[in-house]
Each structure stands twice: as C-alpha cells, then as structure tokens.
Design a protein that fits this description.
With 135 residues, the protein is mainly α. It has 6 helices and 3 strands. It has a 3-stranded antiparallel sheet with strand order 1-3-2.
Length: 135
C-alpha cells in the first residue's frame, strides 16, 4: 500500500472513532470476523467449488447448515456467486466475485504479515506472560 493510501484509510478510521459513528463498517467487519466467512473466501480463492467440495475443504468440520448460512450471507454481500446447473441431480457451483477476490487479496496480505511476524508475536506474548504476577 502506498503511504498516501494508508494515511487516507487511517484518517477515515480515526475520524469515525472520534465521531462515535461507524457508517456500516462494524456490520462488514462482523461478517468478516465470524468463524467461517474468511475461511470460505480463502478456499474459494483457489477456484470454483461445489458445496460438498467446499465443506470437505474447510478445516474444523463445518456443518451443512452453517456452510449454507455462510455462503448465503457472502452471496448476499456480493462476495460469492452461486450457479445452479440444470442437471440431475442439480449441480451448484460457488465462486468468488470480483468483490470477493479483492477481499481474498487482502486476506492473503494479512496472512503473509502474520507469518512474517509470528515468531515476534510469540516472543512478546511469552515475555508479557512471564512479567505478569501469578493469579
């Protein structure tokens, strides 16, 4: 990201924090912060998936109901498209939209940052924990 872009984004976030308004940002962040949405976006960034393929690919064993709710919410938000093919039985494919791909790009950047700083974060946690009095 360019410095100018960072300054604009940071300024906008600080302005919102000071005003006490979120202009819908909280709603979007809540969606992205739920347990499954980002994992579905990451998996779909690898390509088109059928429902069962998507379900099997997600770590942690997502239920059919939860996956259905998650992809519907992502579809409603414009991040996932659902295509029903007129076959017997019907085949349904899920894929990221342009909006979803732009999110996948950001998630990839966050993942790269996490991997780069993982050891430092663990070191800071260990030092902080060691400095805390026992309960």
């Amino acid at each position: 990201m360019s410095l100018g872009h960072t300054e604009v984004t940071t300024t906008a976030l600080f302005d919102l924090a000071e005003s006490g308004e979120d202009c819908g940002i909280r709603d979007v962040l809540d969606r992205l912060g739920d347990k499954w949405s980002v994992q579905v976006v990451v998996e779909l960034s690898r390509g088109v998936r059928r429902f069962r393929e998507l379900q099997r690919a997600l770590p942690g064993g997502i239920s059919q109901r939860m996956l259905t709710l998650t992809v519907r919410r992502l579809e409603r938000d414009g991040m996932v498209s659902r295509t029903v093919h007129p076959t017997v039985p019907p085949r349904v494919d899920y894929e990221l939209t342009d909006l979803g791909r732009s999110l996948a790009h950001l998630v990839r950047t966050l993942t790269d940052w996490s991997l780069q700083h993982h050891d430092a974060i663990l070191d800071h946690r260990a030092r902080w924990d060691a400095a805390q009095p026992p309960e």
